[in-house]
Each structure stands twice: as C-alpha cells, then as structure tokens.
Amino acid sequence: MTKRVKIYDERNNSLIGDKIRVADTFLTRFKGLMLADDLQEGEGLIITPCNSIHMCFMKYAIDAVFIDASNKIVAIYENLRPWLGLSKIHSNVVSVIEVPSGLAKKLDLKIDDTLRLEYLQ
Fold first, then answer.
1. pTM of the entire predicted model
2. Label partner for 30 (CA 20 to 30 A): which of 17, 45, 56, 98?
3. Does residue 7 contact residue 21 with C-beta atoms inside 8 Å?
4. Preceding omega of 82 cis (within 30 degrees of 0)
5. Where does the pLDDT of residue 108 fall: very low under 50, low under 70, confident under 90, or very high at 90 and above?
6. Strands 95-100 and 62-67
C-alpha cells in the first residue's frame, strides 16, 4: 500500500496537496517521479530523507519545496525543467516535496513558512 500525506501551508492554511505520495524507502526515493505521468491537482511526492534532486528521466516540469526537520520551508525551486533541472545540496533539509509546476507561486509559498503534514492511513 502506498503511503500518502496531506500537506498544508500553516501561514495561509492553503492545501498544497491531499494526494501526496511518500517516498521513504531506497527504491521509492530512487524512482521518484522519473518516467511518471504528469501530476494532477492535489498530487505530488515527498521524498524523505532527501537534500537534493535532479530532473533526469522526467517528462514534465515541477516545483520542489525543501523542508527542514521542523517542516519549515528552506528552499523553493520553481519550474524545474525535465532533464535540465537540478537543485543544490541543502545540508539543513530532511525532505523535498515535488508538486505540479506553478503551484508554489499560485499558493504564494515562502521561505520560512511552516508546513503541516497529515499522514493518511
């Protein structure tokens, strides 16, 4: 069974996604969204632990939100392009949330916002 989580931005109580898959094993982290179909509204992936990403073998652009151990946003990468996008290594993050391109801007996500994660059964 695939683990899922709902994620909210506590600053403005906006829903980032209610169908965010959890990638927390070697295999699920390795695969990530490579070769996957486009993300639909409410969908995404949280990779944990993770401190950087690449866009090799991706078919579409994404936004990537990097969070620390207290779920505070440390970095936001908007519109990471397939094959070309790359983040730097962030030593102070524990997870990366990958969502549809444009969502970070649409929801006005900001560095230092705290996210609320609700793990689903």
1. 0.95
2. 17
3. no
4. no
5. very high
6. antiparallel
